[in-house]
Amino acid sequence: MKMNANQNEHTLSWAKSSYSNGQGGECLEWAPEHARTTGEVKIRDSKAVDGPHLTVSRAAFTSLVSLVRDAA
Q1: Cα 37 from chain centroid?
Q2: pLDDT tens-digit map of 2-43
């Protein structure tokens, strides 16, 4: 897992997590097109779009999504 600050996030297309609520809390975004083309999944806090983001492998992202679904 890498943590990157402002690395091309302005050129990426970000998608909001379906687990994000519509009231500004628990907002997670990821860059699906980047993931499809590179195999790296970039994740960021939608409330801090100019802040740092995480870069994880597809396997790590899949595990994260499974963990969140199981906890819901």
Answers
A1: 15
A2: 545 444 556 889 888 766 666 656 678 899 999 999 999 999
Model-level pTM? 0.70
For residue 22, count other CB atoms closer than 10 A to its CB: 7
Residues 52 and 62 sit within 8 Å (Cβ to Cβ): no
What is the spatial distance between Cα 18 and Cα 2, in angstroms, rounded to a whole number?
23
Cα torsion 49, 66, 72, 18: sign: positive
